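Final paragraph of the annual report: two paired records, presented back to back.
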Amino acid sequence: MNPKVDFYFNKATKWQEELEQLRTIVLECGLTEELKWGVPSYTYQKSNIVLIHLFKEYCALLFFKGALLHNEKGLLIQQTENVQAARQIRFTNVSEIVENRAVLKAYIFEAIEVEKAGLKVVLKKTADFNIPEEFQTKLDEVPGLKAAFEALTPGRQRAYIFHFSQPKQAKTRESRVEKYIPKIFEGKGLDD
């Protein structure tokens, strides 16, 4: 156990027992406990394998390369359609964790083997995502916008595409595009 991570488990009120069980299970698999992104993260030879995180409705194990794991038990969940590699296993009570202890360890050991084998999730390229019509129009009409957008990192490009695509109404999509054009020109991401 890494003392730097203790605060995360100590601050939890709703999921205390569940988090303790998950921590024990993960550590029994021989992973190194670290604090990354403000949550307990577990690594094998400095490669991310799994992390523990909590939400209002559940706590979860998140496997970084979960898309490569066999999901015979059907426990691995893709959080949203835009998540490409990671997969979660969600829990709403401690008994779910206790009952699935052996299965969870099997997933963790499989994730370690995936890492040892050097397997990589084939990620979709930014060009594989549909650009909303309102944004495409601006890319075509506004001088320098296309070059500024293409100069962004792929992750920033995808974040903008997802953000612009979410609203159902064209008017809302258009206003989002207008709002963020200056940030794109500044080379900044959606949340920068």
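The closing record of the year follows.
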Amino acid sequence: MVSLGLNRRCSWAGDKPIYIKYHDEEWGVPVHDDQKFFEFLSLEGQQAGLSWITVLNKRKDYKRLFYNFNILKVSKMSDSEIEGILLNKSIIRNKLKLYSIRDNAVIFLRIQKEYGSFNDYIWSFVNGKTIHNKLLNTNDIQTKNEISDKMSKDLKQKGFKFVGTTICYAFMQATGLLNDHSKSCFRYDEIKIL
């Protein structure tokens, strides 16, 4: 763990400024904004098979190329627009992953219509409350659980792509459905208060 005086942070944050900023300001903070949910769902899908820092380093470019993750605008992107993005070296150039962002936006809009918001839909998996795990250190973090299994199955049935159980678990951590900060991390109690 990196020392912060009396405070400590999760060891996975390491010493890279981009990771520290993400850990200290975003990871585990409960999200209730559909556009932010769409951004995290899209970015987690891009991560599949890669490290999260790879995606974080390219996040600005994804936001620029995908209309700041405006769900409606992304849902209307043409194949030729996505093919053009495939030529851009500033992002992960995986055709299936890039097309999934647009295709998932279409389904995301359907969920909003059916449930009133994606927020209402996704928080139903945890009964509307953050699950606060009591991890002694980040080595205890799981990569999936029964809830991520259920979420993955439901998202896939609805037609989403790149939403396996491991991706769903990481999505839940990122968006505050789960608080997986270690108990010794200064953010653990801060997240509990939110």
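The chain has a mean pLDDT of 94. This concludes the annual technical report; the extension proposal builds directly on these records.
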